[in-house]
């Protein structure tokens, strides 16, 4: 969603994610770090675009902002040092990554962050 030519969103259109679709997002975040607002911003955007997706949170350790989709880690702030970009947490990328279970943030630096 950066609007740059040649880039496309890999998430399915909202109408393709039905209520009760079985997609579950869990966000673990550091409350003392002030990341609750970031989680709430992300949760609001997900619920607006994909009302059929279940998104939940739990408190994590210092500096944590970890995102799992259907139990698979797709983004780790502890590993990447920043907040996620749309392509980092695409529900279409679940199960399609090779090597590590989440992308390297260095490849995401030219995209628009989901939350900050």
TrEMBL record:
Membrane-protein topology: Lipid-anchor
Subcellular location: Cell membrane; Cytoplasm, Cytosol
Domain of life assignment: Eukaryota
Keyword Repeat: no
Statement: the UniProt record of this protein carries the keyword Cytoplasm: yes
Pfam family name, one: Rdx
GO biological process: apoptotic process; negative regulation of apoptotic process; positive regulation of filopodium assembly
Keywords: Acetylation, Apoptosis, Cell membrane, Cytoplasm, Disulfide bond, Lipoprotein, Membrane, Prenylation, Redox-active center
InterPro entries, per the entry: Selenoprotein_Rdx-typ, SelW_related, Thioredoxin-like_sf
Biased composition (Polar residues): 1-10
Sequence segments annotated as region (Disordered): 1-22, 96-116
Primary location recorded for the protein, binned into one broad class: membrane
Cellular component GO terms held in the UniProt record: cytosol; plasma membrane
Family to which the UniProt record says this protein belongs: Belongs to the SelWTH family.
Subunit structure: Interacts with GPX1.
Family annotation (NCBIfam families): CXXU_selWTH
Purpose: Increases cell migration by inducing filopodia formation at the leading edge of migrating cells. Plays a role in regulation of apoptosis, possibly through control of CASP3. May be involved in a redox-related process.
Protein name: Migration and invasion enhancer 1
Gene source species: Papio anubis
């Amino acid at each position: 969603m950066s609007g740059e030519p040649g880039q496309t969103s890999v998430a399915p259109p909202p109408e393709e994610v039905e209520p009760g679709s079985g997609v579950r997002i869990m966000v673990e975040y550091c409350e003392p770090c002030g990341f609750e607002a970031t989680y709430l911003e992300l949760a609001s955007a997900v619920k607006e675009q994909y009302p059929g997706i279940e998104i939940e949170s739990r408190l994590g350790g210092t500096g944590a902002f970890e995102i799992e989709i259907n139990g698979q880690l797709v983004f780790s702030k502890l590993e990447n040092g920043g907040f996620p970009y749309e392509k980092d947490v695409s529900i279409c990328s679940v199960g399609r990554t090779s090597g590590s279970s989440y992308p390297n943030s260095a490849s995401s630096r030219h995209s628009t962050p989901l939350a900050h």
